Amino acid sequence: MDWGLKNRLSRIIKKDGRTVMLAVDHGYFLGPTTGLEDAGKTVKPLLSYADALMPTRGILRTSIDASSETPIVLRVSGGNSILDEDLSNEGLTVAMEDAVRLNAAAVAISIYVGSPNQKKTLLNLAKLVDEGHRFGMPVLAVTAVGKDMVRDARYLALCCRIAAEIGAHFVKTYYCEGFEKLVKTCPVPLVMAGGKKLPEKEALELTYNAIKRGASGVDMGRNIFQAEAPVAMIQAVRAVVHENYTPQKAYDLYRDLKSRMRSGKKKGMKNVTAKSEGAK
After folding, report:
1. For 228-239, what is each residue's pLDDT tens digit?
2. Global pTM value
3. 212 is an active site residue
4. Which of 14, 44, 172, 280 is catalytic?
């Protein structure tokens, strides 16, 4: 990799080889997702705890403080919606020049292996990788799945390897039984997708299992911003990813922070956050 591309990627995946990304790009095909109706309000208290933020350019321009130092992984694919029968019908929606203009640290695109639009999405990835190398911009390939696609190790290993073979610099995929196979057969870093909303303890267990089996981090959305206490949750996730907390220890941290925040609000305080555990 060129120095600029390496430098951008190092802002996302930290020196310990891990990252906590906050995904807030759901609206590009889901519309006003619960918890993101006012994306700026949701993101503001979480931003300093995220190693990277994954928004669309519209939300970035309208809702994210430009003074933020949190790296941006910019969603650049779209064109579909929940009204489409085939979610794989995506194209590129952002020019690389605009990603550079927005000072993105990386760009993200979904690929749909095994879908009717498989070839289209994979060629879009190839085009984006070519442009990324021209501009020193890392590319994140998101192994999206359609309604009828399985999420087992055999299928996801296929998706991740194809993404890496085409040139993706890192890959976002789902956790599954045999996750270590995905890690072993993919030559670039794997970031686990948070997926559907889970109870907080289960989400922390999911994070722990992925990290233990070789993930370079997580890209969580709903399991953070839809949590009962989002600021506490992102700190608990950070503790698992960067400090090797066990799920129970992280859950205890989450409950402690949630209790302190509630106590602080009752006393008229705006925020009470951890001074050390998991905080940046």
Report:
1. 999 999 999 999
2. 0.91
3. no
4. 172
